Amino acid sequence: MANARVGDARRGEDPSVRKLEEVSASLFTKEASLFVPSGTMGNLVSVAAWTRPRDLVVASCSSHLARQELPGVSLLSVSLIGIEAPGGTFSARQVEEAIGRLPASRRPTVRLVCAENTHNASGGAVFPISSLRRIRAFCRKRSIRFHVDGSRIFNASVASGIGTEGYGKCCDSMMFCLSKGLGGPVGSGVVGSREFVGEARQACFRLGGGMRQAGIVAAGGLYALRHQVARLAEDHENARTLARILGEIPGIEVINEPVETNIVLFRWGAPSTGQRALRDRLGERGVLLDDRNYPIFRAVTHLGIGKREIARAARALREVFGR
Fold first, then answer.
1. Are 152 and 162 in contact (CB under 8 A)?
2. How far is CA 63 from CA 121, 266, 290, in A?
């Protein structure tokens, strides 16, 4: 990053950004790619590129798009049709049924279907590629576009053994994150056809995503793609180790057993400590958990957390939850 060649990325003059976009597109067998500051912006510019005001988007009710990103999507005057999908995985039949429930006058305005892989709210569950292929086939017949929120698509690829090119062929566009498990400092990529990326780029500029010497962070993302993908298997093993340890603590139930990737969801069956006090006690021991759904917790393994850190976290969890 310190030695990155930089330029005005907004004008397409940053060589490091251009290289990152070139590599990103090739990984997913797409024509073009766009480097954006965040995954949320990546999904938003994708929806903006594929839709127009008053259009409809179909997605899982528990997806990040539906639960966390909907306020941004609503600013586009686009509405969402939610599919109740346990585990975040839905089928082409469910998409067809969701569209079929709409009044006939509204059906032509369904422009986009969105899937999430891996699925965050379900503990990093991998969306089966066979289902993605069938959804893509259905969408093609209906002239509907298919976008994948691939925030953790490299986790899905490593866990399933399916290459990124295979996942790229299952959709019209995809967003993927360079941070999270890959350890990049900031940023995400959006891939698709040249026409789509051109539309997404204009939406990105309108939303304030135009950057100047972005090659500094793009170089970190490029390093992540070249060197940090295979090691995601270590994160998955560490998450499974953590899940086994949690399962041995009385009163703790691991919700997403067996753990597929790098997220562990667990429930504390008999809370004996208030949320803030529990957070403080764990924090004193150097352990941070997502406790927004207390007494359900989310623990995530990623670059920088190895076996030593897992062992330390295990001791802290036993001390706090085992009382």
1. no
2. 7, 19, 17
Q: What is the DSSP letter of 254?
A: E
Q: Are 210 and 36 in contact (CB under 8 A)?
A: no
Average pLDDT over residues 191-204: 97
The structure tokens listed for 252 are 């703790």
Instruction: Give start-end residues of each CATH 3.90.1150.10 domain in the chain.
Output: 232-321
Domain(s) labelled CATH 3.40.640.10 in the chain stretch across 9-227
Instruction: Specify the CATH architecture of the domain 232-321.
Output: Alpha-Beta Complex (3.90)
Q: What is the pLDDT of residues 229-274, one digit of tens each?
A: 999 999 999 999 999 999 999 999 999 999 999 999 999 987 878 8
Residues 6+ apart with CB under 8 A from 169: 29
> Which residues does residue 80 pair with via DSSP β-bridges, in sequence order?
57
Which stretches of the chain are DSSP H helices? 15-27, 39-50, 64-67, 70-74, 92-100, 129-141, 153-160, 164-168, 194-206, 215-227, 232-247, 275-284, 307-321
How far, in Å, CA of 128 to CA of 137, rounded? 15
Specify which residues 315 forms β-bridges with.
none
- How many Cα atoms within 13 Å fall on the side-chain side of residue 113? 31
For all residues of the chain together, what is the average pLDDT? 94
Residue 309: both structure tokens together? 């850190």
By percentage, how much of the chain surpasses pLDDT 90? 87
Q: pLDDT (tens digit, 9 = 90+) per residue, 7-16?
A: 999 999 999 9
In CATH, the number for domain 9-227 is 3.40.640.10
List pLDDT tens digits, range 72-121: 999 898 999 999 998 889 999 999 999 998 887 655 689 999 999 999 99
Q: How far is CA 294 from CA 192, 214, 222, 274, 276, in A?
A: 39, 38, 37, 9, 10
Pairing of strands 188-192, 252-254: unpaired
